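User: Run a structure prediction on this.
Assistant: Running it now.
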Amino acid sequence: MSKNNCLINADSSSKTLLKYLLSFAVGGLLGDVFLHLLPEASDHMLRTGMSSRNVQLYLGLWTLIGILCFAFTESFFSHVSKHNEVMGYLNLLANGFDNLTHGVAVGASFLVSIKMGLFTTFAIAVHEIPHEIGDFAILIKSGFNKWQAVRAQVYIAGVTVLGSLIILLADSADAVGIKTLWILPFTSGGFLHISLVSILPELLSEPDLWQSVKQTLFIIFGVSVMAFVNLLAD
């Protein structure tokens, strides 16, 4: 086999693997939204004394605002940058919001007790492992090389520390929690846009039936992993 043929086969294999990882990312993002972020946001709101009707309205509105904000942002920046590049930065933005809420949760749990803080930190770390795999694939698809993707994820993970510091320096963890209730549904809207608008259409354009089936299985696998991790964390 010639060197050129080897390179072509290697490139084809890399693209196929990336599509599988992107499929996993779609499932992971959808699982994160519907099995973790929105249920957690609902629980937080109910604990503040909001009625069920108001919780539903609040969740729906902020999720829609998140979808529209990310859609308009992508549309605007797509005129000055490549679509894939914009998708990567939008994903980092959504993860920044997500990590901020994680930091708030960690900081608040440490205010209760060191044991509770350590448990919460472990639960969030376990939850983030499959999420980070999908995020890595999205960044690679967006044009980041491997080291750039890793560095970007490390920087965004630092937002968790910021969230913890906000709680630890605040007078009241409950007050901060109430003021940040909008972040979870807003982030959910961002993740929905990235998964269903930015990634899924390209996966649906796959002409090979067997490849489409395998991509669908990876989406289901992504949802299943997030479901398992959420059960484990509970």
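Residues 1-10 have pLDDT under 50 and may be disordered.
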